[in-house]
């Protein structure tokens, strides 16, 4: 069975950060995701999808993302239910955001959010990742003589 969701959209409202009685951070937010179709006036139709994130991801979202910011969310659809104040059963379907990417351009380098799964940082001219060895043949002026017999495949 597969339960995987990938969304790219804009935050429809400010994220709401709370903590469980055990001190675990949880944030809820709504992502506005455009559909491919348009309405009769030619405007894009959007779905408003409720999302939830936990722990460090929740704190990062609450601290660094505002209404209108663009996000990419990778997660899964979850359902839960609880008894409402009126005594009726309330059913909730939402996306459990397991990985979130902030897609807005950074105005300040201090707005970067470290993530344990992130790739190595990229240098300022975005040409290659930091710590990647330089091209050993960059200064070579003569053609490199390689025949098909020299290739390992």
From TrEMBL:
Per its UniProt record, what InterPro entries does this chain match?
NA-bd_OB-fold (IPR012340), Primosome_PriB/ssb (IPR000424), ssDNA-bd (IPR011344)
Per the record, GO CC terms?
Answer: nucleoid
A UniProt-annotated Pfam family: SSB
Disordered: annotated segments: 105-153
Q: Which SUPFAM superfamilies match?
A: Nucleic acid-binding proteins (SSF50249)
Q: Which UniProt keywords apply?
A: DNA damage, DNA recombination, DNA repair, DNA replication, DNA-binding
Record-annotated membrane-spanning stretches? none
Determine the domain of life of the protein's source.
Bacteria
Bias (Low complexity) = 120-134
Q: Where is this motif: Important for interaction with partner proteins?
A: 148-153
Gene3D superfamilies in the record? Nucleic acid-binding proteins (2.40.50.140)
Task: State the protein's purpose.
Answer: Plays an important role in DNA replication, recombination and repair. Binds to ssDNA and to an array of partner proteins to recruit them to their sites of action during DNA metabolism.
What name does the UniProt record give this protein?
A: Single-stranded DNA-binding protein
What is the organism of origin for this protein?
Listeria monocytogenes
